[in-house]
Design brief:
globular, Arc Repressor Mutant, subunit A, disordered C terminus, alpha+beta, four-stranded antiparallel β-sheet, two-stranded antiparallel ribbon, 11 helices, 311 residues, Four Helix Bundle (Hemerythrin (Met), subunit A), 3 domains
Length: 311
């Protein structure tokens, strides 16, 4: 330690009346300035306090927990991303990293869920999102395959909803309006081949449910089949334009234990009215189906939001 010139230790009753500034050298011969307050008693020199040059510049250290809120960088509120969106992003990264292209087959839902450590319902919602974007297709009995993305101009109506946690009631309200009219028109205009396609969709859904699946593919085929049978190109384009939202709501609905079988029964009633060419009955059956599904799902959604808010 080398004391600065011009400073003297002046004990007065055992205390120094002026602080002592000194230069210290560490093991690497780096110099740092400090200020010491010393105490001299019975020939012994004790350090009362010390400050480094940095302390001299910034002032005395704060007490623990004494935080100047005005000097803080503000904290930003965290947002919760649905797990299915994270799964979809991960699958897209996997596809790009492995240079997969149209015609390549992805792993099964079960294997994807195991590898990602998520539930199969999250994987189904993610696949539904990719399918609605035209990136994958599900072939009954074969699996999930990549396809060439559709060009933006391929669809006259394209609607993207970016707030999946907030849009749930609005999607179902829209479905009730659109699909009720689709069923009404289908009962008036459906031809034999339309009825056959709807029958096939219900067989697919029934097969999925028998295998312990939620029946999402059959459900999608049925609802789009009703829109096609309406013979109204605008209604069909609207339905296809909100395909991602439709798939998302259906996936959530069919993930509840009793809903797949209940939806299948409703679909059979709707198809019966379409087959009988009874527009009013078909519209009533479709509306009743969607309202029941909406009420059950919104109740579950409300309970989940309460749980999240409490956490």
């Amino acid at each position: 330690m080398v004391a600065d010139e011009g400073h003297r230790w002046l004990p007065d009753g055992g205390r120094v009346v002026r602080p002592v500034r000194a230069s210290l050298f560490d093991g690497d011969k780096n110099e740092c300035d400090i200020e010491l307050k010393l105490q001299v008693r019975a020939g012994m020199v004790n350090v009362v306090s010390k400050r480094s040059r940095l302390d001299m510049l910034v002032g005395p250290p704060r007490e623990r927990g004494d935080v100047d809120s005005n000097a803080q960088v503000p904290l930003e509120r965290l947002t919760r991303r649905p797990l299915s969106e994270q799964v979809a992003d991960t699958l897209m990264s996997f596809i790009e990293a492995n240079d997969l292209g149209p015609g390549d087959k992805l792993m099964s839902e079960r294997e994807l869920a195991q590898r990602l450590g998520v539930s199969r319902s999250s994987v189904r919602e993610a696949i539904a999102t990719l399918r609605s974007k035209g990136l994958v297709e599900t072939r009954h009995g074969e699996g999930i395959f990549l396809r060439k993305p559709s060009a933006p101009e391929d669809s006259a109506v394209s609607i993207r909803i970016d707030q999946p946690q907030l849009d749930l009631p609005y999607i179902w309200e829209t479905r009730q309006a659109l699909e009720t009219q689709c069923a009404r028109m289908a009962a008036s205009r459906a031809e034999a081949r339309d009825i056959e396609e709807l029958d096939r969709a219900l067989r697919v859904m029934e097969s999925e449910i028998d295998r312990g699946l939620p029946g999402l593919e059959g459900d999608r085929l049925f609802h789009l089949g009703v829109a096609k049978a309406s013979r109204n190109p605008v209604l069909l384009q609207l339905m296809e334009g909100i395909g991602e939202a439709l798939d998302r709501t259906s996936s959530r609905s069919l993930s509840t234990p009793s809903q797949p079988a209940s939806s299948l029964r409703d679909h059979r009633e709707i198809l019966g009215a379409i087959r009988a060419h009874e527009p009013a009955d078909a519209a009533d059956a479709m509306l009743s189906h969607l309202v029941r599904t909406t009420d059950a799902l919104l109740a579950m959604h409300k309970d989940r939001r309460v749980d999240i808010d409490r956490s």
